[in-house]
Amino acid sequence: MKSTPAQRIGALVLRHYYLFRGSWPRILEMAYWPTVNMLVWGLVSQFLAESSNWVARSGGVFIAAVLLWDVLFRGNLGVALAFLEEMWSRNLGQLFVSPLRPIELVAAMLVMSLLRTTVGILPAALLAIPFFDFSIFKLGWPLLAFYANLLFFGGVMGLGVSSLVLRFGLGAESLAWVLIFALAPISCVYYPISVLPDWIQPLAWALPPTHVFEGLRAAMMDGRFDTSHFLAALGLNVLYAAGATILFLSVFQVARKKGLLLNVGE
Q1: Which of 165, 199, 201, 261 is most exposed, with minimal Cβ within 10 Å?
Q2: What is the tens place of the pLDDT at every residue in 164-210?
Q3: CB atoms within 10 A of CB 131
Q4: Within a 10 A sphere around the Cβ of 203, how many other Cβ atoms?
Q5: Which residues contact 102 (CB under 8 A, 6 or more apart)?
Q6: pTM greater than the 0.85 cutoff
């Protein structure tokens, strides 16, 4: 008996329904982007409405914030995509019949993150000079501190995402984009932490990017490098890096015992 077009369409829709039903990251993603955009730009709008004088003397703070946010985003994506490439090509099993150790894979992913981020951000930073008469390189040595802290934390986030993908399969790969943007509203990329509600400010201070972006505004608007923000971001980065590494190595051991390295799917 021949199937009708409606039946074939319905079968495909049903297939995707079962796919979504069995994958909580996919369900989360559908409501996630509108919510994050609303929070970020709602807070930006509130800040601009209340701080016209601040904006008038802010110079290129917003351009610098955009560029450094991209360092964080690409640092995360560099690690996550390096790991996902191995999963997409079904190559994890082959890698680990070689002498390669898990910690060496982590190190290689971090190197790839550095290379991807540098190649990605440098053209944008250079183009900002002729287009907007703004050079982020004028920050000097503080720029290196900001860059290193954001890249490091991005790599830590990417390692955490890689752990979740290894544990839950490729159905969780969208977390490579989702999780980092969840931090955008409370990382105070475009506005000072005082804009946030009081009850969420302690959570914001627990994130390295918040200290970096507060330090960026201090450097650009007050002409000073705030070492307290730098040391706080560095200390938090070390703490999160230790946690993410332990998580990845633990999940790796579980995946190896359960044969997930050779059977990676949705």
Answers
A1: 199
A2: 888 777 666 777 777 888 888 889 888 888 888 899 999 999 999 99
A3: 10
A4: 12
A5: 96, 248, 249, 252
A6: no
Cα–Cα distance, 251 to 137 (Å, whole number): 40
- DSSP of 143-155: HHHHHHHHHHHHH
Instruction: Convert 206-237 to b/e letters by CB count within 10 Å (16 or more is b).
Output: ebbbbbbbbbbbbbbeeeebbeebbebbbebb
Q: How many CB atoms lie within 10 A of CB 63?
A: 18
Is 109:83 a contact under the CB 8 Å cutoff? yes
CA 138/CA 26 separation, integer angstroms? 42
**Phi and psi at residue 190, to the nearest 5°:** -110, 0
- Asked if residues 223 and 216 have their Cβ atoms less than 8 Å apart, the reply is no
Coil, strand, or helix at residue 260?
Answer: coil
Q: Report yes or no: 93 and 261 within 8 Å, Cβ to Cβ.
A: yes
